[in-house]
Amino acid sequence: MIRPVHPSDISRICEIYNHYVVNTTVSFETTPLTLAQMKSRVEGIAAEHPYYVWEDEVSGRVIGFCYVHPWKDRPAYAGAMETTIYLAPEATGHGIGRLLMERLIADCRQRGYYSLIACITGGNLPSIRLHEALGFTQVSHFEAVGHKLDLTLDVVDYQLLF
Question: What distance in Å separates the CA atoms of residue 84 and residue 104, rounded to the nearest whole number?
């Protein structure tokens, strides 16, 4: 079930996100976020922009989340948004990410945003495939811009224009 984020979801969102921080190169953060840090992020974004969670109907547990935030801070970029999506590891590969993103994209269209940008770690094929299936196209490839878990990482940007 897709629904807007609630304050009670923040702990679970932090747990899901920190899995990726600690164990993967999907996030370029290297230190797990505290609950207070995540609370500040979620509340700041959700106050002005779409932020959704997927709540498992059986367990009532949040197993994924997605949101948009401004791509850049300068006024001329208003309407160009960066997308973010994370799923609990056990929730991947079941179509949940696509459904979350479809809801997010529809909301962004209604709000008059004109450009969505996904910044993806190079080699993150599940995310790349998801965004391509949703109509995003690759618009950049930055080589060797990150270092994490003893790996040098590329970043690719995918864009969806309305």
Answer: 10
**Alpha-carbon distance 143 to 136, whole Å?**
20
Lookup: tokens for 56:
């498992």
Q: Beta-strand (E) ranges in 2-88?
A: 2-4, 51-55, 62-70, 80-87
pLDDT tens track for 41-85: 999 999 999 999 999 999 999 999 999 999 999 999 999 999 999
Tokens representing 22 are 């600690």
Tell me the helices (H) and strands (E) count for the chain, helix number first.
Answer: 4, 7
Strand partners, 52: 4, 66
Q: Write down the pTM of the prediction.
A: 0.95
- Round to whole Å and give the CA distance between 156 and 123: 9
Task: Name the amino acid, one letter, at 97.
Answer: G
The H-or-E segment that residue 106 falls in is helix 96-110
